[in-house]
Design brief:
homodimer; 137 residues; mainly alpha; two-stranded antiparallel sheet; 2 strands; elongated; DNA-binding; Rrf2 family transcriptional regulator (chains A, B); WH_DNA-bd_sf (chains A, B); WH-like_DNA-bd_sf (chains A, B); Tscrpt_reg_Rrf2 (chains A, B)
DNA sequence: CAATCCTGTAACTATAATAGTTACAACAGG
DNA sequence: CCTGTTGTAACTATTATAGTTACAGGATTG
């Protein structure tokens, strides 16, 4: 299991998308909903901001999405948080003198890339709006 | 990125499948090809053994596959090494008093499950024999 | 302008996962 | 009996993750 940053990012973006009262939307409030520390939230928001998904203003509460939820795919969010581009690590420097060791890295890369693409397709197919719809149910 | 155990497991199984001289196939030899410690290899082999993928005899070199490479899917190997059943962690105890916090876990589970299934399909579609064919090329 | 509340960020800490390592008991075979 | 092997437990080093403290600086209000 990778980590919970992707989950936290989606949670934060969902809150921003659904909270109308912007003065309420402080990092502390968000942290209360996510159940973490306000600094963790601000750190994550900094990353999402750099990726161009939202804006904020220093000293003033509230955040604004820069992309419509229906146009924001989960894959875009995943890329925004700079998640790993492969699922499985490949061990370093297998023995090149061995016929298996010599080719295993390239072979595994091929295998993992096909797995990765399948995952990307799924993330591409779902948007933040889909998540919001699920949350409202 | 999860870890390199899956890669190491596939490497080990490939070696066992392709090495005809069983007396050569010691944990030290395998470790030399993988570029790790013999104990790491024996530990992994213990896991694969428990899962019923191979046999070995204490004190005597060599291992035998119990499943034909063409019948051994990468998904079976993945399950054998007890890899995580989800790709992304979900943060603990979001605030149930918040409409987002209340439903985010279940929602994310749904999202991640669909991603997971796509990945499983890919791993199910490839066998150890496919890996061996790639290695031989 | 002073007080307060907020964001942004650096730096430190705690915890856990991962892999590597040492050590040794037990088995096999010459 | 000696050597080489497997099987495991226990310890260590390294790294990733998340949580925390601290504080500089912007915004708002009385």
């Amino acid at each position: 299991m990778v980590n919970s940053r992707f989950s936290v990012a989606i949670h934060i973006l969902s809150l921003i998308a659904t909270t109308s009262d912007k003065s309420q939307l402080t990092s502390e409030y968000i942290a209360g909903s996510v159940n973490t520390n306000p600094v963790v939230v601000r750190r994550m928001i900094g990353v999402l901001k750099k990726a161009g998904l939202l804006t904020s203003q220093s000293g003033i509460a509230g955040y604004d999405l820069l992309v419509e939820p229906k146009d924001l795919t989960l894959l875009a969010i995943y890329h925004a948080i700079d998640g790993p581009e492969q699922l499985f690590a490949i061990h370093d420097e297998p023995n090149p003198a061995c016929s298996v060791g010599q080719k295993i890295q390239r072979t595994l890369e091929g295998v993992y890339t096909s797995v990765w693409h399948a995952m990307e397709e799924q993330l591409q197919a779902q948007t933040l709006q889909d998540v919001l719809d699920q949350l409202r149910k």
